[in-house]
TrEMBL record:
Chain ranges of the HhH-GPD domain: 52-204
Cofactor: [4Fe-4S] cluster
Annotated GO biological process: base-excision repair; mismatch repair
GO CC, any one term: nucleus
DNA repair listed as a keyword: yes
Domain of life of the organism encoding this protein: Eukaryota
Molecular function terms, GO-annotated: 4 iron, 4 sulfur cluster binding; 8-oxo-7,8-dihydroguanine DNA N-glycosylase activity; adenine/guanine mispair binding; metal ion binding; oxidized purine DNA binding; purine-specific mismatch base pair DNA N-glycosylase activity
Catalysed conversion reaction: Hydrolyzes free adenine bases from 7,8-dihydro-8-oxoguanine:adenine mismatched double-stranded DNA, leaving an apurinic site
Protein name: Adenine DNA glycosylase
Organism listed in the record: Adineta ricciae
EC number: 3.2.2.31
Gene3D superfamilies according to UniProt: Helix-hairpin-Helix base-excision DNA repair enzymes (C-terminal), Hypothetical protein, domain 2, Nucleoside Triphosphate Pyrophosphohydrolase
Keyword Endoplasmic reticulum listed: no
InterPro entries found in the cross-reference section: DNA_glycosylase, Endonuclease-III-like_CS2, Endonuclease3_FeS-loop_motif, Endouclease-III_FeS-bd_BS, HhH-GPD_domain, HhH_base_excis_C, MIG/MutY, NUDIX_hydrolase-like_dom_sf
Length: 422
């Protein structure tokens, strides 16, 4: 068991080496770039960046973060924004509950805490929507210099390699142990920088594949690296035969480096496959317009605008085009066109977190539909700039060239004047 913990001496060495390395090598990122010392503003920036960074790459987040901060530089401005504007700014980042939660956090902080971020970890976790132990730890350590640990995917990887934690990450005993290791390392002097140094190390040096161990500032404290150097893969020592944290010799795959065995790989749950029929209804006034539907609150993409989508019946593979169109007409109530107006535009695919979704896309001219409380006509420009999911933008890109061809051909407009998006 002792090898799965840090000694006092190792803690001192790790802290010192990590902070020296971080000061020299940290990447310049917009949310790290603050000159004001107002911890309330820093807390807001950390919260926005951390929520954006969940599930999303740094390079993508930078652009969104800067746009966001220009629009809503502080909690008060975000609290008074409309949900539609918030979702519009988030459109394309996915996992829209993060945006809704951020918005609710700002409103709660303004309404109940006078615009001042709560500093107490338990209050943050229990009161602020979407804020868990990790985000609360990041905000409290970075903005308020409180010695609270953080544990995200990067930190898990670093810690499990340092201390050879090879047990299942789904087990509470494993994550409890990793949290306690993270708590051991947080130094009271610079807790925010220490936490960020662990994340940065995981993101740039201690990577899932091909970690750059020779450049690692805490290589000497890394047990996985030490084992990799000194032992053959068939001869991995264990604390004892019943240690719950050690990798079992049978779990070692000699084709990979030993360091890469930590943390233990999650068994991937396969995404569920689903097919939808989508209908893009358009009309031609002075310009092309498209009928959009606002998604209901219970929906995965609630609050966003969408074309008309129907989950296909299980036997859709056996249905001919006419049957599919009949099915569409039966399912969609907002349209006023008949079956012969509906044309096939093509297909596209989008991967959601749990669903591998195929869209079969149809379009139809619909002059007669009158917008209801849930529907609205959008111009091309509005479709491209409104709160619309990435999946529906893909659908639009497939349908639009065909709609233009059909709509303008009939009006004898030269095709060369039509812009086809990539
Ligand atoms: Zn062990």
């Amino acid at each position: 068991m002792t090898r799965h913990r840090f000694s006092t001496e190792e803690i001192t060495l790790c802290r010192r080496s990590l902070l020296v390395w971080y000061d020299k090598h940290k990447r310049k990122l917009p949310w790290r770039d603050w000159h004001d010392t107002d911890s309330n503003i820093v807390a807001y920036r950390v919260l926005v960046s951390e929520l954006m960074l969940q599930q999303t790459q740094v390079a993508t987040v930078i652009r969104y973060y800067e746009t966001w901060m220009n629009q809503w530089p502080n909690v008060n401005s975000l609290a008074s924004a409309s949900e539609d504007d918030v979702l519009k700014c988030w459109a394309g980042l996915g996992y829209y509950n993060r945006a809704r939660n951020l918005h609710k956090c700002a409103q709660l902080i303004v309404n109940e805490y006078n615009g001042e971020f709560p500093r107490d970890l338990d209050i943050m976790i229990n009161r602020l929507p979407g804020v868990g132990r990790y985000t609360a730890g990041a905000v409290s350590s970075i903005a308020f210099s409180l010695p609270n640990p953080i544990l995200d995917g990067n930190v898990i990887r670093v810690l499990s390699r340092l201390r050879c934690i090879g047990s299942d990450l789904k087990k509470k005993s494993t994550t409890d142990h990793l949290w306690s290791l993270a708590a051991d390392l947080v130094c009271p002097e610079r807790p925010g920088d220490l936490n960020q140094s662990l994340m940065e190390l995981g993101a740039t040096i201690c990577t899932p594949q091909k970690p750059k161990c020779t450049e690692c500032p805490i290589q000497k404290q890394c047990l996985a690296y030490e084992q990799q150097i000194h032992q053959s893969s068939t001869d991995i020592e264990q604390c004892s035969t019943n240690c719950t944290f050690c990798l079992k010799p049978t779990e070692i795959d000699s084709s990979r480096s030993l360091v890469e065995h930590y943390p233990r790989k999650k068994v991937k749950t396969k995404q569920r496959e689903e097919t939808s029929f989508v209908l893009v209804l358009y009309r031609l006034n002075s310009q092309l317009e498209f009928l959009m539907l606002k998604q209901k609150q219970s929906n995965l993409l609630s609050g966003l605008w969408s074309f008309f989508e129907v989950i296909s019946p299980p036997d859709f593979d056996q249905m001919n085009e006419r049957k599919r169109k009949t099915f569409l007409i039966e399912q969609i109530q907002h349209m006023s066109c008949n079956i012969d107006d509906i044309k096939l535009a093509g297909q596209c695919r989008h991967l959601f977190s749990h669903i591998d979704k195929q869209y079969i896309i149809y379009y139809a001219l619909d002059d007669l539909s009158i917008p209801t409380a849930q529907t609205q006509w959008f111009t091309e420009e509005q479709v491209l700039t409104s709160a619309i999911s990435t999946a529906m933008k893909k659908v639009f890109n497939v349908a639009l060239p065909q709609i233009k061809l059909r709509a303008f051909n009939g009006k004898k407009v030269g095709l060369e004047s039509i812009h086809f998006p990539g």
